[in-house]
Amino acid sequence: MRGRPREAAPRPGAERRRHPAARGPSVTRRRATSAVALFALLATGGGSVHVAQAQDAAAALRAGDYPAAIALLQRQARLAPRAAAAHRALARTLAEAGRLQEAEDVARAFTAANPRSVELLDTLGQTLAARGRSAEAEAAFKKAIAGGASDALVAEVDLAELRLDRGERDEAMKGFGRLVDAYNRGRLSSVQLTAVGTACRYLGADDPQLFKDALKAFDEATEADADNVEARVRLAEMFL
Q: I need a labelling partner for 189 at 20 to 30 A (CA). Which of 64, 197, 199, 227 fits?
């Protein structure tokens, strides 16, 4: 993976960004990650009624109206009990509104009702990590990765960040490195490219070239999906 030179890349040795759960996500970051889940839900289709509800939820989120967005997503989840995207969007929005127990309940209920699905395990792990339940979060991330979840690369980053926060730097860096390998193996989605960019940002502490690769990955993520707000937020953070 080779990146384009950028003069504004962060300097090596800069303070490491902590895992969002350890410091509390900003309002912008919370809306960004909720938006990613909501736009993923829109992309799944599922009929005009479902799409309209997802659009209304996205509009409520943009306005900062979490209660309205959550109410719409709860209805969507009830109408589509096997739709992972709907339940993921609901769980993430609940978590980002500070309703962590409810978010955990949604993720666990979906997984119990769909025992062959690993699609809510990364979201479950994120919620558990935010509650300080590190061992349970690690187990959820590992299951998402081993099961080949659609967000397995995101789970790789989440697991590596968890390990980094616990002081397990060597294992964390190996995990971030697997994201670079995934990039080099083939074409990735916008969400996956965002995960790669995040990994490269951490790896840049040891190899400054990878700061440039992080910029490249975030650029490619926004080119692949103009609605990927999280990629735009993370790209902007590179220049702070």
A: 64
Q: Which whole-number Å values give the CA distances from 168 to 43, 59, 161, 172, in the listed order?
A: 37, 40, 9, 6
Instruction: Output Rg (C-alpha) for the chain, integer angstroms.
Output: 17
Enter the tokens of residue 14. 């800069």
**Which listed CATH number (1.20.140, 1.10.3470, 2.40.128, 1.25.40) goes with 151-240?**
1.25.40
Query: What share of the chain has pLDDT > 70, as a percent?
Result: 79
**Range list for CATH 1.25.40.10 in the chain:** 25-137
Per-residue b/e over 183-215, b at no fewer than 16 CB within 10 Å?
beeeebbbbbbbbbbbbbbbbbbeeeebbbbbb
Identify the residue with better confidence: 4 or 98: 98
Scan for tokens 């962060």, then name that residue.
Answer: 10
Place of tokens 């003069």: 7
pLDDT single digits (tens) 128-180: 999 999 999 999 999 999 999 999 999 999 999 999 999 999 999 999 999 99
For the chain, report the end-to-end CA distance as a whole number of angstroms: 24
Dihedral angle, C-alpha 94, 100, 105, 111, nearest 10 °: 80
15-54 pLDDT, tens digit each: 333 333 333 333 344 445 555 555 455 544 444 446 777 7
